[in-house]
Design brief:
Chain C: It comes from Cellulomonas xylanilytica. The structure holds three protein chains of three kinds. In chain B, a hairpin with a 2-residue loop joins strand 7 and strand 8. Chain B has 20 helices and 14 strands. By secondary structure, chain C is mainly α. In chain C, helix 5 crosses helix 13, helix 11 runs antiparallel to helix 15 and helix 13 runs antiparallel to helix 15. Chain C is flat and about 70 Å long. Classes of the chains: A mainly alpha, B alpha/beta, C mainly alpha.
Chain lengths: ~325, ~550, ~300
């Protein structure tokens, strides 16, 4: 709705053929735009420059995906091979396994990892007493700082079939002795749960900030109307989070083929490999370790294109139904 | 339209311009600041051997190793070669750092480290490095090593005779890295004999499992059989590939990606019937509960820690390791005996073999950048590394603190001076050790540190098996020089092959089904390009040996 | 804290809700605090006992060897100092670049905001890869230069998007309209009104950036050669990954004696490293946290 307000005033349609009269109008519109909006331009300028220089300029490297990497001919001097490396990837016997595993891991992480911080933020927000609330908050965000190497090391200790505390605990309730580190079926749950455990608190910070901006008068009014706490959560707190949630959901959808490389790699073992070989670990093994730069670039580009397509798609859907969009 | 826009533009672009100018000015500042530093090295880099040149050296060292500038031999080395060195020390994530550095063509004057620049890097980036084959006049020590050490020159040379990376030679290391250990005290306690076949080994493991072998009153806390975690990218030391020797299959360096040579024929044991037999034996042991139930999923820390037992109570019966004290801890080490490889069946025809590891002659320890501005200085330094005294110090540490020079050809490695480290930790803390470029002369008499002496001593039971391997026809050299294209084919196929074999290894060992699944498994391997890879290996092996 | 007292429920439903909530919070706290506690006791326990699952409640085989090794390494202190500088300067620059841009992009009357947002969002996905970036940095003389930790990462698009969404949804439009009537321009409004009213989001974005700089090891790894300029994370990673050097060593050239003792040493150190590297970030959080408390924004509007 509001998004369209600006369009008519300053938009310069570039496709329709225009006559001299239109041209004059457009010039006037442009100069008016600059006269009234120059301050906004000043504000975005540093960001634009940094992005142009450090993000756009190096993008010529993408063509490596379509060229043979030939060091003696320079980075982009190698022979043009078109889709060779993409075809190589698509026709790899591992391709569908990689896709399946990657999507299973990232999609589950995406869904669970999206909901959990919202729930946590709402719950923490309900904790009575400033100090208790602060303590809860701090405690839940702590795991975020444990490095992946150690998290995987801890999974080893906690999930060990013989001495691990978790299998022993679950065994207590009659859950049969699965090897959670080796069973391919357990890989995604273990990965996702540890991921949520580690980042849920950290990711809820943004929602806590959003909750803090709610006008306290709303609560007082609700209280006067006799609303219960669940009702207040549903009708005041949750709506305040929706705009942030939509934006984060769109962004998360752009990670549909992203499964955290380092953690997956460290959690891999021959028993769970059928569930744990993902695009990024494959690209690492073949690309970095074997110097197959063109192939690795092509795989990366494929990954990016799919991710970006999902982002664009989600963005369009959000624009239509939630009235929020990234652009 | 274009014109009108241009006329309207100055407002913004001036502003954009000012920011650009600001950025440019800032970077110009940096630029001058930086070149200020660089100038010195550039000036010093004249090729005339005036001496005192600065060299930038990247060294890939062990994370424990102290700073290069803290090693006394480094100062002497600088003096001997008349250079001044700026070190860049790397001990983690080298692969990632390296690929960017090489692809950007940005190499320091020298790169030092154990296989820091691999043959595969050399195939892709050879123009980055100096061909040393025509500089041997400036490298008399290296030339002497090539003359005296069998295979050293072959290892360093590309197919066209170019030499980009130099190897190291030290002769004290046992031929094999993996040794086989059994708890002798358990055998004695239970009144058992040292096993001499797989069946006997199996029975011994059963006894370990069922009885209270360690005598702590609990008959179920013994782990009869354990091995080092098998990775998803191939096989290595201390892993059950060692059992292939029982069937006479000669592997190199712990197995790697499975390729081996037997009577001049290249094969891959991953599709070999003898590997099937090993897997069957492992599964039999696993199913009987004789193998550590965490064996596939445990990490290296757990693997090492479990074997330490607690106090005097050992917990592992049969396993592989470097030395007994390294594997089981100093306290438990005396309980273990190094054990000769057993034939799979008593009285079988095939002679028993053992993995042939190249630990004395190791490839690619130093490369010189082709862009170096101080080539003469770089060569002087390389030559100085291969000097007799320097080599000893590079390997074991400084003369005085780590090593005593008794006379011209006699050295004695001293025990750790800090009084608490073990000898190998001490060595890795003190110096580059095995990572450095060095040549230990064969006529030297060196009193080894206790860990190495232990490894040598405990290698005795392997001697016969090692002798059964003919280096000329049964060993696949790890340093075959291949073309970029062939390397890429091989690694592409290998990634598919290993994805299958490593998953299947875990499945076969823990769940069985080998007899039913083997043919399909082999068929899948063949469909993944195994034959193509074997042919390529054969081609390069024939070139090498012919 | 009027809201909390107001919300203290007395009806049976509210009581039930409180009990449910309390249980959940306690479980969550246990799930997060226990592993942290585990890291703490593991960092002072015998690593053999940790790896074999014998350390659960109290430290076993007490030893401060790991910490001694970490703290005896003077590279740690250089790393600390460097990281501190990069983090402070970097975060400041980040905020200066991100916030005004986010505000400008939140203005609905700013015509090019959609193409600009696309322009930014595109770079979250597509990049030229490491090698062109490396060459660019070399041409800009950013290699081996501390500014490489600060300038190229001056803008994180993710944070830009979050900040923009916040400005868009939380700044009352009436404020701007009133200000425009007084002849206040965008820059002035941003500085005088938007910033003071957005402390919560600034705190969050600032924290995100701060942690991003604090954890950054990759920049140092690829673009910096001089160890004196390396941040703490590089130093710690060298120590941390030494553990894997042994694991790899078992299958590689280092098999000839990394030594099991050394491997144990590395095991203990890895837990200590977490404590050493996380502590300072923990100390910052309370300062950031107070901006999340209710009433900060409303209070300042009213005031």
């Amino acid at each position: 709705m509001a998004l369209t307000l600006d369009e008519t005033a300053t938009k310069v349609p570039g496709t329709t053929p225009v006559g001299p009269a239109m041209k004059g109008r457009r010039t006037r519109a442009l100069s008016r735009h600059l006269r009234t909006r120059w301050q906004l331009w000043v504000m975005v300028a540093p960001a634009v420059i940094v992005t142009l220089v450090f993000a756009y300029f190096p993008m010529y490297g993408i063509q490596l995906a379509f060229r043979e990497f030939d060091f003696t001919a320079g980075l982009t001097g190698g022979e043009w091979v078109g889709m060779k490396y993409f075809t190589q990837f698509f026709s790899s016997p591992l391709f569908w396994d990689l896709m399946r595993n990657t999507v299973a891991i990232s999609l589950t992480t995406l869904v669970v990892g999206f909901i959990a911080p919202v729930v946590l933020a709402l719950a923490v927000n309900q904790v009575v007493g400033v100090r208790r609330r602060r303590f809860t908050q701090t405690a839940t965000y702590l795991p975020h700082f444990i490095s992946i190497v150690v998290v995987v090391g801890m999974l080893q200790v906690f999930l060990s079939p013989t001495s691990g505390v978790i299998p022993n605990f679950l065994g207590f309730f009659g859950v049969s002795d699965t090897n959670y580190l080796g069973d391919p079926g357990a890989f995604v749950p273990v990965y996702v749960i540890s991921e949520v455990w580690q980042h849920c608190g950290w990711n809820s910070i943004i929602y806590l900030a959003a909750l803090s901006s709610i006008d306290t008068h709303l609560y007082e009014a609700a209280r006067v109307d006799g609303a219960s706490r669940p009702q207040i959560i549903r009708h005041i707190d949750l709506p305040a989070l929706v705009p942030t949630m939509v934006v984060l959901f769109i962004l998360n959808m752009g990670g549909v083929l992203n499964a955290g490389f380092e953690k997956v790699f460290l959690m891999q073992n021959p028993l769970n490999l059928s569930a744990s070989e993902v695009i990024s670990t494959y690209a690492y093994k073949i690309g970095i370790l074997q110097s197959q730069f063109s192939y690795a670039t092509a795989i990366g580009l494929f990954n990016t294109v799919i991710n970006f397509a999902f982002l664009v798609l989600t963005n369009q859907v959000a624009k239509r139904f939630a009235n929020t969009s990234l652009w | 339209m274009a014109r009108t826009i241009r006329s309207a533009r100055p407002r913004t672009s001036r502003r954009a311009l000012t920011s650009t100018v600001a950025v440019a000015a800032a970077s110009a500042l940096l630029l001058s600041a930086c070149t200020g530093g660089d100038d010195a090295s550039d000036d010093g880099g004249s090729d005339a051997s005036g001496g005192g040149e600065e060299l930038n050296i990247l060294v890939v060292k062990h994370p424990l190793t102290k700073a290069m500038s803290d090693m006394a031999w480094v100062g002497e080395l600088e003096k001997a070669a008349d250079v001044s060195i700026t070190w860049e020390e790397v001990s983690a994530d080298w692969d990632q750092k390296k690929s960017t550095m090489l692809a950007a063509g940005d190499t320091p004057d020298l790169i030092i480290g154990a296989n820091a620049i691999t043959d595969s890097d050399l195939a892709t980036f050879r123009t980055l490095f100096e061909d040393l084959s025509d500089d041997m006049d400036a490298l008399p020590n290296v030339q002497a090593m090539f003359d005296e050490v069998d295979g050293a020159e072959a290892m360093a040379s590309q197919a066209d005779g170019a030499v980009y990376a130099l190897p190291s030679w030290k002769e004290f290391w046992p031929q094999a890295i993996t040794r086989q250990y059994i708890n002798q005290q358990w055998l004695d306690t239970l009144g058992l004999e040292m096993p001499t076949s797989w069946d006997e080994l199996f029975d011994v493991l059963v006894a370990f499992d069922e009885q209270d072998a360690n005598g702590n009153g609990d008959p179920s806390d013994e782990i009869p059989f354990d091995w080092s975690p098998v990775t998803t990218t191939g096989y290595g030391y201390f892993q059950p590939t060692a059992l292939l020797g029982s069937l006479g299959l000669p592997i190199t360096a712990g197995g790697g990606t499975g390729y081996f040579v037997e009577d001049g024929e290249v094969g891959n044991f991953l599709a070999d019937e003898r590997w099937k037999e090993v897997l069957t034996f492992l599964n039999r042991a696993y199913a009987a509960g004789l193998v550590n139930q965490n064996v596939i999923t445990q990490d290296y820390s757990a693997y090492q820690s479990v074997a330490r037992g607690s106090g005097d109570t050992a917990s592992v019966g049969f396993s592989w390791g470097w030395t007994a004290s390294d594997r089981f801890g100093a306290q438990l080490a005396p309980q273990y005996a190094s054990m000769a490889p057993v034939p799979a069946e008593a009285g079988q025809d095939a002679p028993v073999t053992w993995s042939y590891d190249f630990e004395n002659l190791t490839a690619n320890h130093v490369v010189v950048s082709a862009q170096t501005k101080a080539k003469a200085a770089a060569l002087r330094l390389v030559n100085a590394f291969y000097d007799q005294d320097t080599s000893v110090q590079v390997l074991f540490g400084d003369l005085g603190t780590n090593v005593t020079k008794v006379d011209d050809t006699t050295y004695e490695v001293l025990p750790p001076a800090d009084g608490q480290s073990d000898p190998s930790t001490w060595k890795w803390t003190s110096t580059l050790a095995d990572a450095g470029p060095l040549w230990i002369r064969e006529d030297l008499d060196v009193t080894l540190p206790t860990d190495l002496a232990e490894a040598v001593e405990q290698s005795a039971p392997l001697e016969e098996a090692v002798a059964n391997v003919d280096p000329d026809t049964d060993v696949l050299p790890p340093f075959l020089k291949m073309s970029t294209e062939d390397l890429s084919t091989i690694s592409l196929n290998n990634s598919t092959i290993l994805n299958l074999t490593q998953t299947k290894f875990a499945e076969f060992v823990t769940s069985g089904g080998i007899d039913d699944g083997w043919d399909e498994y082999v068929a899948q391997l063949e469909a993944s390009g195994l034959e193509q890879n074997i042919e390529l290996y054969q081609k390069y092996y024939d070139e090498y040996s012919g | 804290m009027t809201t909390t007292t107001l919300r203290r429920g007395r009806t049976p439903g509210d009581l039930l809700f409180s009990i449910g909530l309390g249980t959940v919070i306690v479980l969550v706290l246990f799930a997060t605090l226990y592993p942290i506690y585990f890291v703490l006791i593991a960092s002072v326990s015998d690593p053999t006992l940790v790896a074999t699952g014998k350390v659960w409640v109290l430290p076993q085989g007490l030893s401060t060897f790991g910490y001694e090794q970490i703290l005896a390494d003077d590279r740690i202190w250089t790393g600390y100092r460097n990281t501190l500088v990069y983090t402070v300067v970097g975060t400041a620059l980040n905020l200066v670049v991100t916030l005004p841009a986010a505000y400008a992009l939140s203005r609905r009357e700013f015509g090019p905001r959609r193409p600009l947002m696309f322009f930014f969002a595109f770079t979250m996905f597509f990049s030229g890869g490491l090698i062109p970036t490396y060459l660019l940095y070399r041409d800009l003389n950013l290699l081996d230069n501390w500014l490489v930790f600060v300038i190229p990462s001056a803008l994180n698009v993710y944070n830009l998007i979050i900040a923009r969404a916040f400005f868009e949804n939380s700044l009352p439009e009436e404020l701007f309209e009133a200000a425009t009537l007084d002849g206040v321009g965008y820059l002035q409004f941003f500085w005088r009104m938007a910033i003071p009213l957005s402390k919560a989001i600034i705190a969050v974005i600032g924290l995100y950036y701060l942690v991003q700089h604090w954890n950054d090891f990759f920049t140092g790894l690829i673009f910096v050669r001089d160890y004196d300029k390396q941040p703490l994370q590089i130093v710690l990673r060298d120590i941390l990954l030494s553990n894997q050097a042994f694991a790899g060593g078992a299958g590689g050239a280092g098999g000839s004696g990394g030594g099991a003792y050394a491997q144990q040493f590395a095991d203990q150190i890895k837990y200590g490293v977490i404590i050493v590297s996380t502590l300072p970030v923990l100390l910052v959080y309370p300062f950031v946290q107070k901006y999340f408390e209710k009433g900060v924004m409303v209070g300042s509007v009213k005031g």
